[in-house]
Amino acid sequence: MDLNWNVMQEPRGIMRLTHFIFAIFAFVCVTEYTGYLTFHCNGKDYPVSYEYPFDLVYNKTLNCNHRYEIYGDFSGDAIFFVWTGFLALVYSIAISIIYVKFDRVYLQNPKLPLADFCATVVVAVFWLSSSAAWANGLTGLKNKTDIDPSENPCNCSITQSSFTTLNISVIFGFLNFFLWATDLWFLYKETSWFQGSKFHSTSGV
Length: 205
Description:
By secondary structure, the protein is of the alpha+beta class. The protein contains six helices and five strands. It has helices at about 10-30, 75-100, 105-110, 110-145, 165-190, 190-205; strands at about 35-40, 45-50, 55-60, 65-75, 155-160. Helix 1 (about 10-30) runs antiparallel to helix 5 (about 165-190), helix 2 runs antiparallel to helix 4 and helix 4 (about 110-145) packs antiparallel against helix 5. The protein is elongated. The two termini are about 40 Å apart. Residues about 200-205 have low confidence and may be disordered.
């Protein structure tokens, strides 16, 4: 079949390209992040590093004979978020191929627009739930790595990495939900639900 690239200039095609790009931004901000927490005690450093999937298991005896422990498993929230981003990425590619290569079949078969609409609803719900879960997990991660001075008997100085990248990932997550939810209107116009109601309204039924 001929390739119809014009569909990528239509709203549904443009939205899929947008979904693809912002899905990458969302999960890369999480998977490529590496945080650190370093205790500086009497000229000696005790570093702690953590990265995706953020299952913190750390215990270390400082040179003042105080044992410091950091435990916290936030992998479930992080994996759910990244998995949603990967799902959105794959679906955006797959449905874009269908748009370009099988656009005539897509428009003539009423089941395909309905399936596309329903799948988009599912992915949008995943974005909302995974973003909320990851926002909660990120709050827990921040709390676990936020050292209370009263819990620092050795009076060590502490340096910590910024959470800006992970904060941005949460923003991208909710932005992706908004984009997928917005796309529902354009997809709905291609379904038999909309076409049927349009036909009835124009025929006076």
